[in-house]
């Protein structure tokens, strides 16, 4: 039996998590694996309810379960709160830190049926299968912040970016291990021409490479990488990045697959994995049954594979998603002429039905 803590969060979070839970139930019926889910307040909705975006009880529940499935947090309603009460800084970042999920796997895989759904040409994206390994619990998002008013009335802010050799080594090993199982190619991304932290990053990653003679390591500056991702993305297999670069580049990589609504993620490092779509709370479409639930459904597949060691169940989910896309079902973000537009609820339902029949 596997215990999953559900943190639907804000905006479209509850809609996409509800869809993923439906698919999880289908996996249970199809395979006999037993899942127990427990939901907890987290993010802006938790702040409204309890005065804090990360209630103690929520954290305890997450630490006591086998895995966490998170929707998204944040939205305009909470944007003017003091920074440490904001859902992103006061809940999401500390949750990642408490769970110790230092490696964030963000696969950017194009489903054959969506090769024409991307804004890029078919030949650029067809067959794309790349993996961003993003460092998740260090870097500038976690550094100290300082803000002061200057005598001339101007404002000065200082944010700090810290990394230790240990933090870089452990995420690099995750990326090298993955590259070894895939095509044997790893591209480490940094800004070593400017940043001291990136120079350390490059030094440490090059050092770890000694343990992996079968993996071909290259280094690329982040600005070039952003350009190469849209010029010729299929040159990449595994991309290793620090926290902020990976955040930005993975949103960019998502569009190669048709939509940010397609990209799942797995936060790994501790006993309790954290699974979440890479997108945010999408306030512009929240509550309208418009959100694409596939990123969250594919996050469930990653949970089955990485936390529960159920690779066959993970494949059932991925095949059900591919099958439903082959049948022509599309949410608005991936809609194409001649296809059948459905909402969040119907898309999740179709994937669950297909999974049970497979
Ligand atoms: N992990 C998290 O909880 C994250 C939270 N955020 C928060 O989310 C809020 C909105 O941020 P944005 O910059 O607008 O990023 P976003 O990822 O929420 O949305 C960007 C664009 O993509 C669309 N989109 C996102 N997910 C979609 C889905 N599943 N289906 C269809 N379309 C989708 C949205 O409608 C929007 O047009 C902010 O408060 C931000 O801080 C942002 C990123 C991650
Ligand atoms: C809201 C940020 C802290 C996180 C983010 O954008 C992400 O993890 O993709
Ligand atoms: Mg992001």
UniProtKB/TrEMBL annotation:
Pfam families: Iso_dh. The record marks 141, 191 as: Important for catalysis. Its EC number is 1.1.1.85. Keywords: Amino-acid biosynthesis, Branched-chain amino acid biosynthesis, Cytoplasm, Leucine biosynthesis, Magnesium, Manganese, Metal-binding, NAD, Oxidoreductase. Mg(2+) binds at residues 223, 247, 251. Its cofactor is Mn(2+); Mg(2+). NAD(+) binds at residues 75-88, 280-292. One of its GO terms (biological process) is L-leucine biosynthetic process. Residues 3-351 form the Isopropylmalate dehydrogenase-like domain. GO terms for molecular function: 3-isopropylmalate dehydrogenase activity; magnesium ion binding; NAD binding. It comes from the Bacteria. InterPro entries: IsoCit/isopropylmalate_DH_CS (IPR019818), IsoPropMal-DH-like_dom (IPR024084), Isopropylmalate_DH (IPR004429). The keyword NAD applies. It is an enzyme of class 1 (oxidoreductase). Gene3D superfamilies: Isopropylmalate Dehydrogenase. Binds 1 Mg(2+) or Mn(2+) ion per subunit. Its main location: cytoplasm. Homodimer. Catalyzes the oxidation of 3-carboxy-2-hydroxy-4-methylpentanoate (3-isopropylmalate) to 3-carboxy-4-methyl-2-oxopentanoate. The product decarboxylates to 4-methyl-2 oxopentanoate. Belongs to the isocitrate and isopropylmalate dehydrogenases family. LeuB type 1 subfamily. This is 3-isopropylmalate dehydrogenase. It comes from Desulfoscipio gibsoniae DSM 7213.
